[in-house]
Each structure stands twice: as structure tokens, then as C-alpha cells.
Amino acid sequence: MMDPAPRIFDLVVIGAGPAGASAAFTAARAGLSVALVDKAAFPRAKLCGGLFSGRARKVFESVFDRPLDPALFDERTRFAFYLDGARLGPEEVISPMHVTMRWDMDNLLKTMACEAGATDFTGHRVASLDLESRRLTLASGAALGWSVLLGADGVQSIVAKALFGRAFDPDRVGFALEVEAPNSADPGPLAPIRIDFDAARWGYGWSFPKRHTTTVGVGGVAALNRDMSEKIARYQELLGDASGARVKGHFLPSGEDKGTPGRGTTLLAGDAAGYLDPITGEGIAYAMQSGHAAACAVRDALAAGDAARALPAYTRAVRPIRRSLRLAGWLRPLIFSERFRPVFRRGFGHSRVLKAEFLRLLNGEVEYPRILTLTLRRLPLILMRAMRVPSGKPPHPERSTPPDRRPSA
Question: Which among 64, 106, 261, 286 is least buried, having the fewest CB atoms inside 10 angstroms?
Fold first, then answer.
């Protein structure tokens, strides 16, 4: 029996999360034929803290041309930072951020993409993928072909694996454990978002209070946190969470920029491209931004009659994202390494300016060049203050090569 002839699309998107839905929506609204593929049927569970920053809100409103739905997004205006169980100064009052349930938010984005004209292939697993012949086959037997393929299928991307031999670097990938702990009542807009910088090595813990649940999680570099299950248990105990909610795990790209985000007529966006801030954990905004940029590049390339033009145009468009992640990588040791912990405690804990700028960064009001400049200006004073405070035995240097053993999701 002969294989079925593939149904040809201008753009096939694998992954219907924020990156894929943004790309599918943008391309379909531009008049392109789009297939939106995902192994999961929507709505579906998605492990994510669900913090929707001011940066994410701006990108969402720009891409989808609509305001946030208050039924899906809870506003929060307070932030609290902790280190070694002690709060780093008072709670910070911030420009509004939002928290959301990814179950609802992702379903909204996918629905808008399909309403814009994308053909819905969610709930169908990719059985085979051939980039050279520009063809994939779904588990249902349906075959799809494309002018351009976009891999927006997360940190364990099958498209990235087909391009580069593996989806991520096992020595650098992050790992997180989370629970959705039920709330007895709506905590209200004054309930603070909480970040604990010491909850995991080269990572942090978080508590995001929502209308019906509080997302509690711990994440860090996987190879340095073999005992992540113990860390999440300790963090739940610290926060008084005795809900018994199921603990779930997932990998994080941790700012692992893959360089050129694709090859030939195949592109990568969002987590599949490594676009996650290794300091703040910001990923949703970069996912929507890169998905939209990819679709615009495809639109222009096909209008010019040359699908191969999409990748260089898209690569130029995501330079600001890649520059931000690169700068975040430079600053990351000052925040997360044990060697600089006394410096960070004194500097960040006693500086309202640094905390305010960090929150402005998260909200998309400033970018990393300003944070880097501000940090370098204050570093001599921070170091002098830290040296005046006994810090106990000097910490061992961070391992240059993480161990091979890693937790499994």
C-alpha cells in the first residue's frame, strides 16, 4: 500500500503552546496556510509556574491584538525575595504582574490561532519526521508537507533533535518540580509572589498565589540538583504546604541558546530554541515574541518566492532575545554561585535600587544592558560591604563540569 500524499501547507507548526500558537495565529491572519500540530489535545496540563510578567502582557497584546481576560489572569502587585530562609528586605510593591493557569491560557492561545485560520492537528502525535523531504506523518496516518517548518515543541523538541542530534545539552539543562496546592480561599491581589534564591543550586524556589491554587516549585541546573525531590519537600514544609498535591517534573532550557535557530527551511522558537531567561525564568514572553517573529519571517520569505529567506530574517529578528539571554548568562554567577552568595546577600538585600530594577526587568520596563551597567557600578561598594561581614568558611568553587547523573522527568 502506497503512503498517502501529504497535504501541503505554507507553514507547519509543531507545538501549540505560546510560541506555536503565536506563530500559527500570525501566519494564518497573514493569509498563509498553517497546520498546528501537538501531541496533546487541548486544554491540557502544562507544568509552569504561570507567572505572566508585564513583558509577557505587552507581547500578548501586541501579537493577539486584545487585552488580557481578567477571568484567566489574576493581578499581583507585591514581590518578596528570600535567601537562606530570611527575607531580603521588605516586600516590594511593583507594577502589576499576573498569574495564570496554563491549562486555560494555552487553550485560549490555541483557540485564537485556529479561529484565525490555522488547521487544527492537536491531539495527534508525530510518528515520523523527515526534514529533507519536508514531510511528517502523524500517528493517525495523515501526512503533512510544508514550505517552512517551525519547531515550537518545547525543551525536548523532536525538531531540535532532528536538526542537532539532541534537543538539549544534558550538562546545562534545568529541571524543576512543582505542585498546584489548592487554596481554601482567593488570596487576593495583595498576596505576594515569593522567590527563594537558595532553594536549589543555580536556581530558586517560587510560590505564585492564584485564585484557586498556589503554584509551589523548585528548579535549578539538573546536574547539580540530584536531590530535587528532597528540595521540593523541604520547600513545601517551609511554606507550610501540607496539601499532598501531586509533584510533577519538567526540564527547562535555562537560556541554552542554540545559536542559529534552525537550518534550511526549519526554524525553532520558544523553549525549543533555548529562549528562557536563566535568571528570572521568563519564558512565555520570549516564546510568543519568537513565534510571532518566525511567522513574520515566513510570510515575507514566501511573498518573495523563496522559503529559504525565512531563517536569516528570523535570526536577525531574534537578536534582541539572544543578546538579553547572553547578558543574563554573564550575570548569573553573581546571583546563584555559592562563591558570590555573601556578595549577593549584601548587595541585593540592602539595595532597593537593584531589586526595583530587577522587577522592572521582569516587567519588560528595562533590559539587561541597564542591569549589567548598574551592577558593575555598584559592585565595588557591594564587595567592600561583603568583606566587612564574616561569611564563615569560604565556599568551594563551583564545579566546572557537572556530574553525568541527572534527574528524570
Answer: 64
